[in-house]
Design a protein that fits this description.
Helix content is 69%, strand content 2%. The model has no long low-confidence stretch (mean pLDDT 95). Strands 1-2 form a two-stranded antiparallel ribbon. It has one domain: Orthogonal Bundle (Arp2/3 complex 21 kDa subunit ARPC3), CATH 1.10.1760.20. The protein has 177 residues and is an all-alpha fold. The chain is built from 7 helices and 2 strands; from the N terminus they run αββαααααα.
């Protein structure tokens, strides 16, 4: 990796960590700005850089650094209802890259990336709440905890991510080796 790539990864990682701490705890999954930054990074960065920074974020959190929401970290995070959403960030990078290659419009990439976060995060949350913790929640209750309160905010984040990425992508592409 060259210096520009390492710098972009470091800046993206720092943004993701800061966005994770801007949190409003409303239940088992807090409202954060993580998904906004994840979308911006996936839409704007090359796949290798986006995957690297999200993998670093995951590793830093799992080894115990307080990078996850509300300054948490460590292996115990794996058994939190919100951990599936964190895992989805890596998949979002792959999904967006596939759409970039097919020249999908940015707005569609952002919406499908947001959907990807839910498609991974919600079943994981259900597994933790029902399988591990034994709460016996219905699908409607799970969606009420992990999706419905976030839909409007995530739609706004997707719009913001598209607007920011439209400005950022040309700058980053002119610097990509």
């Amino acid at each position: 990796m060259i210096t520009k790539q390492i710098t972009r990864i470091a800046i993206g990682l720092a943004l993701l960590i800061v966005a994770s701490q801007l949190s409003l705890p409303i239940g088992p999954v807090p409202i954060t700005l993580q998904s906004l930054v994840v979308l911006i990074l996936a839409l704007s960065l090359p796949l290798k850089e986006a995957l690297t920074l999200h993998a670093l974020y995951l590793v830093l959190g799992l080894i115990g650094l307080p990078v996850f929401a509300n300054f948490t970290g460590g292996w115990a995070a794996v058994l939190k209802p919100s951990f599936g959403f964190i895992l989805s960030f890596l998949v979002v990078c792959l999904v967006v890259e596939g759409m970039k290659k097919r020249h999908y419009p940015l707005w569609l990439m952002a919406l499908l990336a947001s959907l990807t976060i839910y498609l991974i995060g919600i079943p994981y949350m259900a597994w933790v709440l029902n399988g591990y913790l034994g709460h016996g929640l219905s699908l409607g209750q799970i969606l009420s905890l992990g999706m419905f309160p976030f839909l409007i905010g995530d739609l706004l984040k997707a719009v913001l991510a598209v607007l920011i990425s439209r400005r950022l992508r040309p700058l980053l592409e002119s610097q990509t080796p």
